[in-house]
């Protein structure tokens, strides 16, 4: 589906009438810095190829119907500063994958079906200034929040 001759750095298809699954070929856009597929009526799992986009700084997959667990391969995207997975159908635990995302400033995984405890790795992201975990099924103490470097 994607076949451009020059390296694409920014792709925003938000609020379009695309639907279906995220194409596996998206992983071929290895120079991509920003990808926004917000509110495209996408469903299914995030393709493994997306985790090849190691230059991404901005990833917005919010307001879709993506499901399954948030893959641990997310930690491959070490340059991410912005991650929005809000209002999808993600399930399972928030795994301890965030410790490698040390540049992350914005994280929204609200309005999903995430369960379990908040992993301690979230409390050690020194650059994080926005965190929204609301409308999930999280449990356990949040006492560690007083020790984190949130601004």
From TrEMBL:
Any one GO biological process: detection of stimulus
Subcellular location: Cell membrane
GO MF, any single term: protein serine/threonine kinase activity
Keyword Cytoplasm: no
Top enzyme class: transferase
PANTHER family: LRR RECEPTOR-LIKE KINASE, RECEPTOR LIKE PROTEIN 30-LIKE
Full protein name: Putative non-specific serine/threonine protein kinase
Organism annotation: Medicago truncatula
